[in-house]
Specification:
Elements: E1 2-3, E2 10-13, H1 17-28, E3 33-37, E4 53-55, H2 71-82, H3 88-107, E5 112-113, E6 126-129, H4 132-146, E7 150-153, E8 156-163, E9 166-174, E10 177-181, E11 185-188, H5 197-204, E12 212-213, H6 222-229, E13 234-235, E14 241-247, E15 268-270, H7 285-288, H8 291-297, E16 303-309, E17 324-326, H9 329-336, H10 340-353, E18 389-401, E19 404-405, E20 412-415, E21 418-425, H11 443-463
Parallel strand pairs: 1-10, 2-3, 2-11, 3-7, 11-21, 12-18
Antiparallel strand pairs: 4-6, 5-6, 8-9, 9-10, 13-19, 14-18, 15-16, 16-18, 17-18, 20-21
Helix pairs in contact: 1-4, 1-11, 2-3, 3-11, 9-10
Pfam families: FAD_binding_2 (PF00890)
Organism: Thioclava dalianensis
Protein name: Tricarballylate dehydrogenase
């Protein structure tokens, strides 16, 4: 085993948004920092390179954000999607701190653009990155390297040795050899375990083998498992995750944001038997889109099918893959492998249950609903009548898992009731401390930015 020299003050494990925020904050506090990124340089950035925006509290117009988005409204949105399964203290910390993050991000190279059109309805609540997540990641790497942060790629951490109340050393593999460093402080920001499909299957059962992984194939939970195995306090349920319904034609790994489907509110969604199974119009898309991954996971073969008509085709941001198209519903059913009689019956029953559609409004709750069918559609319920007809297959796309490291308001980890004196966590690795279930669009980037900055400052204070 090779002991690396010179030794850093701080080792940051991971290479995405949270890791970069921690590294930058620590370097600005005067610490010598090394980032250990498992991925090769072209794939650096973890899931962050697939993101588009972060959710930001603001008491008035701020950068690209309009109007205001108060702490209480933000918290209410979070409580709704999580079913109140959150640590309210940490949630409020993330929300309050987010307002100061936007100017900090701009000062460190991130640029913003006006919000995207379509069904996201986020101009007031979410700030969109110019160049997307990859633009953000690249900006932060430039900033970090200008501050003297050392970046090691293809550096796969395998073990953190904890002795009593501190991490004594880190072992990682790189270029075929095992290396060792002895930093004064450690920040873990290496994501969840979603890319380890065997672990997913242990948590979810065999159905998880049919899940697609939206993000990086490098988040396999190796560091997480190592620390949990040494008694570091855990938080979260292994069956809870940020999972959305994505295009069924997406690759197994790394399909990213372009495979997401935003058309559910303007559709009906059926299973392989041609039957509807949930209210497609329950709420505006940023608050409800994440439930559809779990809903599809519960269907036969873990697959669903979106059915829309010509008048809805331009109302949402399309997937990278074109929809299946037919002039008739029967033809669409055949193309999609659905039973034609069952699908046409389901559509006919849905159409008959639709009422007055004059109040239809695609970007807000409009109350245009069905009557007399189960499940209902409570908003945006328009008959599917205008050819050509279009369809997409849906599969569960897992973004990140919520089982993680429990942290306090200083982002510090603990064993029992005793803090590990030089160990902090940020980002998806500790997001289960706040996200008990469900998801709110852009909130993962908020958690990573806020707790990355906190962890970096605390780690530097300890090292210094």
């Amino acid at each position: 085993m090779k002991t690396v020299s010179p030794q850093p003050d701080i080792a940051v494990i991971g290479g995405g948004n949270a890791a970069l925020c921690a590294a930058i904050a620590a370097a600005e506090a005067g610490a010598r920092v090394v980032i250990l990124e498992t991925a090769p340089k072209p794939y650096r950035g973890g899931n962050s390179r697939h993101t588009r925006n972060f959710r930001c509290m603001h008491r008035g117009p701020l950068g690209p954000l309009t109007d205001s988005y108060t702490e209480e409204e933000y918290l209410a949105d979070l409580m709704k999607v999580t079913g109140s399964k959150t640590d309210e203290g940490l949630a409020r910390l993330a929300i309050r701190s987010s307002e100061a993050c936007l100017p900090w991000m701009e000062a460190h190279g991130v640029r913003f653009q006006p919000s995207l059109s379509g069904t996201l309805s986020l101009a007031r609540t979410n700030a969109f990155f110019l160049g997307g997540g990859k633009g953000l990641v690249n900006a932060y790497y430039r900033t970090a390297e200008a501050l003297g942060v050392q970046v090691e790629y293809e550096a796969a951490v395998t073990h953190l040795e904890i002795d009593d109340d501190r991490v004594t050393h880190i072992e990682y593999t790189q270029t075929g050899e095992t290396r060792r460093i002895n930093p004064k402080s450690v920040v873990v920001a290496s994501g969840g375990f979603q890319a380890d499909t065997d672990w997913l299957a242990r948590a979810w059962g065999p159905a998880a083998k049919n899940f697609l992984i939206r993000g990086t194939p490098y988040n396999r939970g190796i560091v997480l498992a190592d620390l949990l195995g040494q008694g570091v306090e855990q938080v979260g349920d292994p069956t809870q995750c940020h999972a959305v319904a994505i295009d069924g034609r997406a690759p197994k790994f790394d399909g990213g944001i372009v495979t997401r489907l935003d058309c559910v509110p303007f559709s009906i969604v059926v299973n392989k038997n041609g039957e509807r199974f949930y209210d497609e119009g329950e709420d505006v898309w940023p608050k409800r889109y994440a439930i559809w991954g779990r809903l599809v996971a519960a269907q036969p073969d873990q697959v669903g099918y979106v059915i829309i008509d010509a008048k809805s085709l331009e109302l949402f941001m399309p997937s990278v893959f074109p929809p299946i198209k037919s002039e008739t519903l029967e033809g669409l059913a055949v193309e999609m492998g659905l039973p034609p009689a069952a699908l046409t019956k389901t559509v006919a029953e849905f159409n008959a249950a639709c009422g007055d559609t004059s109040g239809f409004h695609p970007t807000e709750l409009d109350g245009v609903s069905t009557t007399g069918i189960t499940p209902p559609k409570t908003n945006w319920a328009r008959p599917i009548t205008d050819p050509p007809f279009y369809g997409y297959s849906l599969r569960t796309g897992v973004t990140f898992t919520y089982l993680g490291l429990k942290v306090d308001a200083r982002a510090q980890c603990s064993i029992g009731d005793r803090p590990v004196s030089n160990l902090w966590a940020a980002g998806e690795t500790m997001a289960g401390s706040i996200l008990g279930q469900g998801y709110l669009a852009g909130f993962g980037m908020t958690i990573g930015t806020v707790f990355g900055r906190i962890a970096g400052k605390e780690a530097a204070a300890h090292a210094n």
